[in-house]
């Protein structure tokens, strides 16, 4: 089962996942956006997004319009705001009940839909799922150890696909808590921007620890409001991913935050690969609708929108009323 797997999206994460699957001995096809990109990957066996990391020779490289009818599972490794377009493009060629797994971490702007909701609305016969957790593409592609969470509504399918993707160095844990996994992945990107701002402003390690801890409290409150399980939020795709993303410059969101903290305007930096930029305002809107207090996420959204300066946001957070921890 799941011997033929296709990855839509040949960016850093798509190429890393393709290498992971190739090492299991299963058939894997990596789909690039167009013929030119596919031919370049075939000839060089290297992605510009992952320089100096070779794409396994066993990986077939095609374009996104390839026929997927014989593929047993589809992993969609495109940015969250492009997921709907990518899934719509392949919907007509999917096999009935094919698992379609989002590998992006975000919430769609405008619709406020989570990634599996986008898949369900774009490919009616698909079985949506989400793959998320503490993992950097370059490390995974090289075969360094990583553990993630794969969530689907059907536990048996999730377990079978996790086994198919898994190897000694890549450990997917399966879950049926789709929403919890999606919330952890989306919210941590916003908090990583905040952590980067703290680092870029030179506010110190103590401030960074406080930010991550209080940020996790926000993530947890938001998750509970949307029905996520506590064990998911404190697991790999929640707390685990938050710790990783808030502590390394390999994180695009953290690096973006560092630049903001050093005084660069968000528009000047212009990192379209930092998912938290798009997620922040959506997260805050959804939190307000549920009556969830998220001061750190709100501060990030205000900074990104130019409504408040970094220093003013920091002062706002530091002068909040003293209260019991929780």
Question: What tags apply to this protein structure?
Answer:
single chain, 13% strand, alpha/beta, 8-stranded mixed sheet, 8 strands, 326 residues
Explain what you see.
This protein is an alpha/beta fold. 49% of the residues lie in helices and 13% in strands. It contains 15 helices and eight strands. It has helices at residues 12-23, 35-44, 83-90, 115-122, 137-142, 155-165, 178-200, 205-225, 230-233, 236-245, 252-261, 266-269, 276-290, 295-304, 310-318, and strands at residues 4-8, 27-32, 60-63, 73-76, 99-102, 127-132, 146-152, 170-175. α2 links the parallel β2 (27-32) and β3. α7 runs parallel beside α10 (236-245). The mean pLDDT is 94.
């Amino acid at each position: 089962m799941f011997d033929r797997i296709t990855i839509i999206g040949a960016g850093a994460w798509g190429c890393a996942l393709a290498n992971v699957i190739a090492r299991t001995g299963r058939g894997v096809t990596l789909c690039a956006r167009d013929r030119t990109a596919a031919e370049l990957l075939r000839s060089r066996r290297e992605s510009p997004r992952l320089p100096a990391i070779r794409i396994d020779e066993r990986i077939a490289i095609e374009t996104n319009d390839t026929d997927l009818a014989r593929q047993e599972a589809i992993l969609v490794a495109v940015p969250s705001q492009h997921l709907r377009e990518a899934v719509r493009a392949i919907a007509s060629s999917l096999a009935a009940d094919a698992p379609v797994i989002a590998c992006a971490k975000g919430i769609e702007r405008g619709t406020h839909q989570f990634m599996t909701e986008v898949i369900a609305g774009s490919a009616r016969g698909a079985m949506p799922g989400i793959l998320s957790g503490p993992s950097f593409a370059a490390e995974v592609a090289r075969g360094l150890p990583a553990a993630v969470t794969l969530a689907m509504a059907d536990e048996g399918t999730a377990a079978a696909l996790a086994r198919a993707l898994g190897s000694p160095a890549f450990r997917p844990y399966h879950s049926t808590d789709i929403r919890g996994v999606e919330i952890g992945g989306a919210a941590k990107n916003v908090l990583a921007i905040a952590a980067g701002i703290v680092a870029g402003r030179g506010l110190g390690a103590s401030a960074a620890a406080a930010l991550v801890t209080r940020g996790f409290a926000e993530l947890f409150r938001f998750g509970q409001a949307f029905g996520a399980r506590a064990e998911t939020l404190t697991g790999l795709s929640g707390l685990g991913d938050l710790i990783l993303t808030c502590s390394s410059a390999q994180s695009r969101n953290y690096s973006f935050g560092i630049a903001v903290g050093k005084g660069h305007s968000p528009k000047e930096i212009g990192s379209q690969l930092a998912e938290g930029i798009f997620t922040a305002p959506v997260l805050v809107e959804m939190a307000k609708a549920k009556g969830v207090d998220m001061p750190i996420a709100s501060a990030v959204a205000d900074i990104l929108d130019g409504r408040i300066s970094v220093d003013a946001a920091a002062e706002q957070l530091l002068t909040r009323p003293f209260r019991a921890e929780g």
